[in-house]
Amino acid sequence: MRQSGVSAWILIAACVGGCDNLRVSAGPVIDGRGRFADCPKGTRFAKQQREQGLIEWCTRPDGTKHGRWASYFPSGNPRLIGGYQNGRRTGTWTRFHRNGSKKSHGKFVRGTAVGTWESWHTNGKLKARGNFVDGSMHGAAWQYWQNGKLRAHGSYDQGRRHGPWTFYARSGERAISAHYRDGERDGRWIYFHPSGRIRAAGDYRSGRRQGAWSLYDTAGQLIHRGEYSGGMAVKRSADEHAADAAGSAGNPLELDR
Fold this sequence. Notes:
By secondary structure, the chain is mainly beta. The chain has two domains: 4-102, no CATH class; 125-255, Single Sheet (Histone H3 K4-specific methyltransferase SET7/9 N-terminal domain). It is built from one helix and 19 strands. It has one helix spanning 240-245, and strands at 44-50, 53-59, 65-72, 78-85, 88-96, 102-109, 112-120, 126-133, 136-144, 150-157, 160-161, 163-168, 174-181, 184-185, 187-192, 198-205, 208-216, 222-229, 232-236. The protein has a 19-stranded antiparallel sheet that branches. Strand 2 (53-59) and strand 3 form a beta hairpin. It is elongated, with a radius of gyration of 26 Å. 23% of the residues are buried.
């Protein structure tokens, strides 16, 4: 599941008539009484320096997180920025790569991920987009290669792949036409050569190969056929040499993603 842009958590205080009681910091603004102006009333600002980097947050006297929360890489670049309400994640949360670019972005409501979430590669290209319902991926989803081309498209049902999915090679050609049921391979699976011709085809039942599976060469000629039951090969074609000549594609077992 069911995964946008802040370059740093730097707060700039602007005053009229003097700024004696304010200062600018890498954390929240401090007023003249030592309170942090951007933490909600009844909370205080807290921070902790760890080997992985600095963490800053707003907390109530009993330790409940309430208000803004942020963590940073040792370099000072933000790692994760969001907020809490009564101890549960709320509002927009954004995670970053070490280079400062966005890694993922989405929304929480009362501690649960909801709505559209997106993630990005380190080069800024979109990596994935999907929808969360009650904390689980649900509905249509897309995944992309670093070069921006589509990698996979299908649907989730309560956090599990369900229904038809299509997978693509990095160069953009369709690689696999698949089908899932409740997160398991179930139904017809077809693998393709880069040319678009069928490479292998067969059925899954509850995540295991079942029935006839066929393998084809780049010209579309059948070179291998086998029968499966519960994922185990029970019958193979006599022409094993032709299958071996096909290299790693000689056995459909080698084609798993």
